[in-house]
């Protein structure tokens, strides 16, 4: 049976190495995981199929048989341990399953598979396993994983290497999904150019408090004091398992914040896995108000006020100076006029009176 490199990449969904404390042991003929290459993927009784993982929608109390295929690409036969455990998403959004030193309490305990399988060199073996849903199982998704592992012993630690895939078990019943928003904050960084807008950084945590596996969309709207929206964008919310959470940060450029800055985030969930009619999908909205001091614009306003006051003071000074000059000119004009009257209008020498001559 030939498996292409692309198919190998698609079917190997979870690879993890764990180190756990153990009692000192003598190294035996245990295989070195670094020298081994193997894949594990969903299968039918006749061999591997095209599924990347297993989705099973079951009623409480239902039992279903599935299959997995283990292929050994090594040159020697290898004994693989087969293990199932509860599944979860890492901080980076990758699916993983609990390590062997952590007990499973949910979907991982519903999977029953044989403990070991021996696979020859370049051989593929199909192994059946069963999924048994408890009668009192709660509706919704119960993620798990199943893997083929190899453990090597050296010194005082055991190193477990495993390859596997996810098993998503959905218990039929009432399905609800919502993505509430927690810790919503907005931080505004203004531009020191008063004629340029600033940047708003919106941070929040999206929590899946429903009972199903979902993704969704997130809409962020940032509006100013007058209610004008400066930024309105929609982004994707990556997959979240029930009870999971994810931190989200959105950067909004070109935002004018002149006092109050109002940020509204709305999330809308979307079901993943097998769809189910009648699912209760609830959008959630959260709002936060941030008060921002527009220092650059206030500085420009203060500068304009100072310039205006200075211009008015200078204008008043010029008017007063001009008025003073005009008053001085008027006074000088009046003084010159008075001097001209005194000089031009002085009494002349009196001529002799004829009567005086006759006397």
From TrEMBL:
Residues 1-27 form the signal peptide. Keywords: Membrane, Signal, Transmembrane, Transmembrane helix. Residues 329-359 are annotated as: Disordered. It comes from the Bacteria. The chain crosses the membrane at residues 291-311. The keyword Membrane applies. Residues 350-359 have a biased composition (Basic and acidic residues). This is DUF916 domain-containing protein. It comes from Micromonospora arborensis.
């Amino acid at each position: 049976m030939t498996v292409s490199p692309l198919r190998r990449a698609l079917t190997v969904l979870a690879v993890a190495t764990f180190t756990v404390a153990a009692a000192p042991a003598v190294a035996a003929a245990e295989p070195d995981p670094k020298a081994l290459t193997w894949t594990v993927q969903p299968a039918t009784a006749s061999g591997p199929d095209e599924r990347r993982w297993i989705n099973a929608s079951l009623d409480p109390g239902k039992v279903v048989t599935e299959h997995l295929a283990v292929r050994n690409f090594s040159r020697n036969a290898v004994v693989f341990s087969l293990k199932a455990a509860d599944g979860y998403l890492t901080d980076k959004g990758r699916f993983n399953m609990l390590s062997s030193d952590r007990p499973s309490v949910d979907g991982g305990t519903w999977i029953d598979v044989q403990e070991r399988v021996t696979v020859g060199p370049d051989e593929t073996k199909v192994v059946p396993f069963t999924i048994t849903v408890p009668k009192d199982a709660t509706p919704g998704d119960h993620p798990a994983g199943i893997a083929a592992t190899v453990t090597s012993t050296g010194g005082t630690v055991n190193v477990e290497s495993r390859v596997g895939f996810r098993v998503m078990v959905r218990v039929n019943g009432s399905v609800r999904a919502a993505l509430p928003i927690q810790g919503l904050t907005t931080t505004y960084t203004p531009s020191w150019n008063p004629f340029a807008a600033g940047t708003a950084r919106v941070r929040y945590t999206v929590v899946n408090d429903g009972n199903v596996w979902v993704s969704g969309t997130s809409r962020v709207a940032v509006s100013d004091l007058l209610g004008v929206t400066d930024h309105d964008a929609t982004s994707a919310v990556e997959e979240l398992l029930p009870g999971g959470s994810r931190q989200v940060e959105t950067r909004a450029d070109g935002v004018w914040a002149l006092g109050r800055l109002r940020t509204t985030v709305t999330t809308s969930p979307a079901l993943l896995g097998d769809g189910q009619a009648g699912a209760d999908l609830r959008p959630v909205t959260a709002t936060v108000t941030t008060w921002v001091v527009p220092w650059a614009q206030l500085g420009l306003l203060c500068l304009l006020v100072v310039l205006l006051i200075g211009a008015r003071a200078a204008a008043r000074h010029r008017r007063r100076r001009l008025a003073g000059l005009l008053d001085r000119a008027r006074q000088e004009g009046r003084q010159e006029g008075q001097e001209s009257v005194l000089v031009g209008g002085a009494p002349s020498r009196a001529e002799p009176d004829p009567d005086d001559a006759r006397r």
